[in-house]
Amino acid sequence: MYTMVEWRTAYYTPIDREYHTSTTQTPDQKGLEEPIYPIRQLGETVPEQDQQGRNILQTTQAAIRGGAGTLQLVMTVSHEAAIGGRFKSYGKDVREALRETIRANQVDMKGVELPTSLKNLSGFDYQQNAFSEDARKRGLDEVKDAIKFTADVMRGGGIDLVSWEFPRTINEQKFAKDDKGKPIFERDTESEKFVWLVDDRSGRTARLSKEEKQHLAFDKETFKPIAPTSPEERVKLNDFIWDDFQKWAKKNQERVKTLTEEDRKKAEENGEILATSPEQILVDVQLNAQINSLRGQSTRYQDLAEQPYNKMIEQKNLANQETDPEEKQKYEKEARKYEELYKDYMRSVEGSEQQIKDLEERKTNYKTIQDYGIKKSAISYAEAGITAMQQTEQMIAEGKPRKDLYVGPEIGWPDYFGSHPDEFIELIEKSRQQMVKMLTSKTLKDFAGNDITSDGRQLPKGQKPVQNRFYNEKLTPKEAEKHAENHVKGLFDTSHMGMWLSYFKPNPGENEDARIKRFNTWFTDQVEKIASKPGLVGGIQLVDSQSAAHGHLPPGEGIFPVIETAKIFKEKGYKGFLVSEGHEEEKFGVGRIRTKTWERFNAPIGSGYFGAPTPQRWRNIEHGYFGKTYSPLFMFGSYAPSAEFKLWSEVPLE
Question: What pTM was computed for the model?
Answer without folding.
Answer: 0.85
